[in-house]
Amino acid sequence: MRYAYGVTSALLIGGAMVSLVSGVPAGAQVAQNDESEMRSVVPRAGAPASFADLTEQLAPAVVNISTRQRLKVPNNPLAQLFGMPGGGGPQTREAQSLGSGFIVTADGYVVTNNHVITAEGQGEVESITVTMPDGTEYPAQLVGRDAASDLAVLKIQRPKPFPFVEFGDSSRARVGDWVVAIGNPFGLGGTVTSGIVSAVYRNTGSGGAYDRYIQTDASINRGNSGGPMFDMRGQVIGINNAIFSPSGGSVGIGFAIPAEVAQPIVQKLMKGQSIERGYLGIRIQPVNEDLAASLGIAHNRGEFVQAVEPGLAADKAGLQGGDVVLKVDGKDVTPDQTLSYLVANIAPGTRIPIELIRDGQRRTVNATVGKRPSEEELARQQMFDPETGAQNQGNDQGAEKTGKVEEALGVQVIPLTPQIARQLGVPDATKGVVVAGVDPNSDAAAKGLQRGDIVLQANYKAVGSPAELEQIVTAAKSAKRDALLLQVQRRGGPALYVPIRLR
Q: Which residues form the active site (predicted)?
């Protein structure tokens, strides 16, 4: 978790329950079909006398999810210097993570957050375990995951059916409605908290196609991620996902992925289907008060186009930097219904009208929506973008696992795409690979190689991909070479030759 002010991932430990009758939907669904029972459990007006009956029915379907991971750790330079343990090749350590989830079918499909079951950094998840409220453990298989929406589906098995809960209709949620969250904060086991819906469709400002949450003051803490948020019908209207906190603990501002967003994605993941989203290829920002004043338009409506990616859907449709997009496919672009969200939920290949303002005049263009790249591909495209500052963050997300190159040279490299080439200020057609990270203890670091450098040649051979560089490294080692001669180009400078000792 990040503990600074801002939206932080908060693992919510699981513990929601279902009807004790195996294979029957949680008590919420039973109550929904039996109005007399529902009236006795949940008063229709005012504060509930107790959440005990509802919790008893739901808690058996909420589970604890733990993973065992193998993580790479940096070498200890002092250990290497003095010949101590830890100074040799790449070191690894074992780590564990905890989160929550809930069972949605009698045959054992479990929903959770993607970040609960994704390894940190360059780690690898070795095993996933689902623990029931009674302490019974089951090995889990990862069925599918989606980084963009932060959702994942697991599968567990046993001879008899599992208790389960069902998704509700989050579009019916209203500010002030009571909600109950069940999870395992800080590894304490099944924990129930209650509160109200503080806001619906909250945009946190973190960007992305799914920055649209239900906000609640129900206490949500680390370990609750992936757990369910229930309405008073006992249906899942949200998946607890993140908190806003200066300390890392709950301060009454938690966020859940709305069921109306999560359920269609979960259904596709359960079927093994890939998640395809729409994409225009533009860089945007909200129309704040200052921007609106400079353009002479109303603020908090529409989004401003900063730049358009050449050759992609928006460029082909005629969108330009400086345009203000007001509507997409007839839907208003607002802070609660962002341009990214609207486009992401349109099937690639669909032709849509886009209403915009250009030079003070309203006009409409038609665009054929493209396919949104994966989160890894987007991270690569933005990795060296001077406008995002990502090149200074040390984020190696998107770096290819070119083990031989990293082991021999102490650098990680990724392909040089046209998008990255433009960000680095070189022609789109430039051939080479980009340095995504440098081991500070390597000769490459000592020679001045840094993130964003472009490797054009190695031992006078053109390098067109990470695989080609790996082949050259292998050949140099086979020839008993002690070093590799790289031709390196840095933004704004000429290409220079730099000899790097092989490790």
A: 115, 150, 225
